[in-house]
Specification:
Radius of gyration: 23 Å
Shape: globular
CATH topology of the largest domain: Jelly Rolls
Number of strands: 12
Helix content: 10-25%
Number of helices: 3
Order of helices and strands: HEEEEEEHEEEEEEH
Distance between the termini: 15 Å
């Protein structure tokens, strides 16, 4: 009888702990983090692999990594000057909406909950837009920048994605994406295994008796 009670408690505690959310893992996109892979950058964190690529409504989008994080250009970079045509002269290294709408596409190896987006080069009253997975509509959000082109963190609790576009639709605004915080949506079994091991040991001892 005592063994059955202990077994039930062990299984219950294991299931409870295995269902608890893990701590959010920070992933930095700053210079020196990740690896460049052709026209994309690869990152990892919290047991999840992340691929960052660029998107633009027109032009030739290219994702770039800078001291402030990831940005997008919509024309070739020549000695850090944009001189291929008039439209590209004013293209910046930020994710911005001048001439072309630009975005960074983050693709994840498993579904994740994004808990926070981290920006830099944010101006006063700047916005960003995000589009989850492959839905056709975007959601625009006010970043509420400080006006000094500083850092800003934006919480997005409960945003479950396998991929997400993070972009700018306003030609007067822009930003760099310096990182994210995420939690894998795939259930993790370590807690259950931790409590199941003593249960197996107790069963083996009982059989021995």
């Amino acid at each position: 009888m005592k063994f059955r009670i202990l077994a039930a408690c062990t299984v219950g505690v294991g299931l409870l702990l295995s269902s608890l959310p893990a701590h959010a893992a920070p992933v930095s996109f700053l210079t020196g983090e990740g690896t460049k892979d052709g026209d994309s950058y690869k990152f990892s964190g919290g047991g999840v692999d992340i691929t960052a690529t660029s998107w633009s409504s027109s032009g030739q989008p290219s994702i770039q990594q800078y001291l402030g994080g990831l940005g997008v250009t919509s024309c070739p970079v020549i000695a850090e000057l944009f001189v291929t045509n008039q439209e590209c002269i004013d293209d910046s290294v930020d994710v911005e909406g001048y001439g072309n709408w630009e975005a960074i596409l983050l693709s994840f190896s498993v579904p994740v909950y994004i808990t926070k987006l981290l920006f830099t080069d944010v101006g006063e009253n700047d916005h960003f837009s995000y589009r989850i997975n492959d839905v056709s509509s975007s959601t625009e959000v006010d970043i509420q920048g400080t006006g000094d082109n500083g850092f800003h963190e934006f919480s997005l609790p409960g945003l479950l994605v396998s991929s997400v576009y993070i972009g700018e639709l306003d030609q007067q605004e822009g930003f760099k994406l310096r990182g994210i915080e995420l939690v894998s949506a795939v259930p993790l079994p370590p807690a259950f295994a931790l409590f199941a091991a003593p249960l197996l040991l107790l069963g083996w001892i009982r059989r021995r008796r």
